[in-house]
Design a protein that fits this description.
alpha+beta, globular, single chain, five-stranded antiparallel sheet, 11 strands
């Protein structure tokens, strides 16, 4: 067997193996500490991981303690309202925005969310509606493509909202 046919055989073998592979459920893709927090929270809040947007999880230091926290898209199993849960590495309790928990102009259902990304600590955030601010922790920009966007950040243990555009 020459080198070329060996390479083709290897590619086909890998493809066949991957064809039978099953994707892990979204929650199984999270670290153990996050899964434990979500399981506990789900008993009180009837929430589940919502993987309709890729990525469905973002990592940042949202509480400013120097440790990586997670923001995860969720859905309330009863109301079907969508939102975000912030899971912190420290003893801080998880924080839900949306999914039935109203947050400013974002409302209590983030089904409108199409894209999101982490904004780094120290970045200057501008708004047409509010005073500009410099982030003291990492935050998240949430948006509907071609429409509105906003910054969600944690301030004094609570979620804050800054409208950025509409």
């Amino acid at each position: 067997m020459n080198g070329r046919s060996m390479a083709v055989t290897l590619v086909l073998a890998c493809a066949a193996g991957m064809a039978g592979a099953q994707a892990l459920p979204p929650q199984a893709q999270l670290p153990v500490w996050a899964t434990q927090q979500l399981d506990s929270l789900a008993k009180r809040e009837a929430i589940e991981v919502n993987a309709r947007v890729n990525p469905f999880v973002l990592r940042g230091d949202f509480d400013g303690d120097g440790k990586g926290d997670l923001a995860i898209l969720i859905k309330n199993k009863d109301s079907k309202k969508e939102g975000i849960v912030f899971l912190f590495r420290q003893k801080t309790a998880p924080l839900i925005v949306g999914a039935g928990h109203a947050l400013s102009s974002g409302g209590d259902d983030f089904a409108w969310l199409e894209v999101w990304q982490v904004e780094d600590k120290g970045s200057r955030q501008h708004s047409y509606h509010e005073k500009s601010l410099s982030l003291k922790t990492d935050g998240i920009v949430v948006a509907k493509e071609g429409s509105a966007s906003a910054l969600i950040y944690i301030k004094s243990g609570k979620a804050a909202w800054q409208q950025q555009g509409d």
